[in-house]
From TrEMBL:
SUPFAM superfamilies assigned: Ribokinase-like, YjeF N-terminal domain-like
Binding site for (6S)-NADPHX: N61, N62, G63, G64, D65, D157, A255, G316, H362, D429
Keyword tags: ATP-binding, Isomerase, Lyase, Metal-binding, Multifunctional enzyme, NAD, NADP, Nucleotide-binding, Potassium
UniProt organism field: Solilutibacter tolerans
Reactions accelerated catalytically: (6R)-NADHX = (6S)-NADHX; (6R)-NADPHX = (6S)-NADPHX; (6S)-NADPHX + ADP = AMP + phosphate + NADPH + H(+); (6S)-NADHX + ADP = AMP + phosphate + NADH + H(+)
Protein name, UniProt field: Bifunctional NAD(P)H-hydrate repair enzyme
Amino acid sequence: MPRPFALYISTALREVEKRAMGVAGIDEDSLMRRAGQAAWRQLLHTWPQAQRILVLCGPGNNGGDGWVLAQHALDAGRQVRVLMPADELPRTPLAQKMADAYRKAGGAVDVFDGGLPDADVIVDALFGIGCHRAPVGRMALFVDAVNASLLPVLALDVPSGVDADTGHVPGMAINAMHTIQFIAAHAGLATGAALDHVGSLSLSGLDVPDECFDGLDAAAEALARPELTPRLRDSHKGRHGHVLAIGGDHGMGGAIILTSQAALRAGAGLVSVATRSEHVPVLMARRPEAMAHAVEDAASLDALLRRADALALGPGLGQADWGRVLFDAATCADKPSVIDADALNILVDSPRPLPAAVLTPHPGEAARLLGTDKNTVQSDRYTAARQLADKFDCVVVLKGAGSLIAAPGRTTRVCMLGNPGMAGGGMGDALTGIIATLLAQGHAPFDAASIGVWLHARAGDRAAERGEIGMLASDLIAELPATIAECTA
């Protein structure tokens, strides 16, 4: 099997299939039979009581996997029907072979006429991982009928309509309850719009030998739980990093307060805050552990910059003269930095290389930084993240469902944790404080971003145990100490 956290695109998986046939003597017939059998076992595991099984078979080899599953279900005495999108034979010889075997065993086959027969479970074997277009015409009606049925769906390899390489959903797509991936995990099923369609995920390697992956680069890798070093008993605050949080223009003090709180809860030894004078009393009342400083110009920021180990720049910074002056001073200080929120918008107007920085844009900010639109970013989040990393010569966290961490010369990482409750104000400010703390503690930018994204998402999942809707950034921040404890040996 490949590395447990490696994610691949379809061209790499095609190469693995070719190698399996050449190196291990596994023919296409065997791979398809293994896939169909693995899918049938997954169906039995997930829906053991299901008796009426409806298998949707497309004309390609993904449909062939479905025909094999249907044969297993038939042999097991289940009520099985195969439903085809049109009155046509499978287009590949292998799929045709599996279809013929199912028919000869007495399996029922129908053509979609706008309605679906009664079923306990639907199996989606319409499109494979090589399909990157939206369903159209009668196929679109087919997909719509499946989703409207509200029946549980098992998708084989990828829910039909989802791009398995990018996660883009260009039109409509099957809403699966579970997706079983074959040979290796697919990069596109870990990020973006795909996450609303894949349901839970599993992987069957189909017994393809390890050597079939030799020399093949993964497109991405899923973040694993970090292993953090416990603190020495003889610790003091000077050993755990000094974060300077810069932001909070008039009327925007809440963002920088959340950043400072997150930095403290993430374990920073010291946190200073450079903000407008009006926010100092509030910050002292809300978070007295942070050292609040009224800063009106670059000169008054200079001493704070010298003492800091890392910067959290942008939350509530604004884009007026005050914010721009502080932005210029901070980015010239040659300190490890997290650049977020308004600092990213200022960067749009004055782009520059930032090799010591971690940029944390959401898709809208990423689009402005790249001079494109949000839809383009979301249609291929991997490419957008890599383009940003190359343009600014730094680490980039492209936030959103399945957040990505990209850097020049590094394999992109994907966060598989998190939940919709985190789609709220202040969550990005918290992430900025967490990553800044890790930078201040000496972690390299790529590792600080990776660890920080994982901690942020896991803390969000812990907070969501009390309910996603109405969850606040401060709820997530409160979970950080326990989350870090999970990762400390």
